[in-house]
Task: structure prediction
Amino acid sequence: MARSVLVTGGNRGIGLAVARAFQAQGDAVAVTHRGSGAPEGLLGVECDVTDPDQVARAFGEVEAVQGPVDVLVSNAGITDDRLMLRMTDPQFLRVLDTNLGGAFRTSRKAAAAMLRKRQGRVVFISSVAGLRGSEGQANYAASKAGLVGLARSLARELGSRGITVNVVAPGLVETDMTAKLPEARRAQMIGDVPLGRIADPAEIASAVVWLASPGASYVTGAVIPVDGGLGMGH
Result:
């Protein structure tokens, strides 16, 4: 049976790969965006995840077309890098409010319908940076680390109703952002990865799809690294 899937920030990069993977297996898939629209074949809903009213409206639009959300993939996120001593309070808080606050708002909204159905899947897209840290990314790493605590708290709160909450922590992935890196920096980063290469977004998507599948029905509160070994031991 087709499920109703919502991927926040699903109009490009990892989010789009996740959305396409669910679509390929027959699910009805919606993606949030901030005004850029959605790729062909996906239901697009405009939403700033820092705004609770926009989150509520987006869920209403999704439910009207494809029913209550069965699978939420919280992927929307931003970066605003700067070394800590030069980072301003607004820079720090804006990244946390989007990456961590957005996950809280969207999962809170999704959980209401999931609780009534006594089933559901929530997957947060974190980062290897949240596990091992990253220079110049105190805000980003803190927000991504926070997703682990959020997921495990929700896993305990919602587990008795058949709802699982898990985290996927990607490493270096081939996206628009990594494509813009200077070649020397790109080579240096790849050199830190034991598998010696950048991930394809589809490799992240496969982990997300598995966590939302019947085969992962007894997995909750887990952090699945898909990072080529970059974060081993964390």
Summary: The beta strands are 4-7, 28-33, 43-46, 71-74, 120-125, 163-170, 223-226. The radius of gyration is 17 Å. The first helix runs from residue 13 to 24.
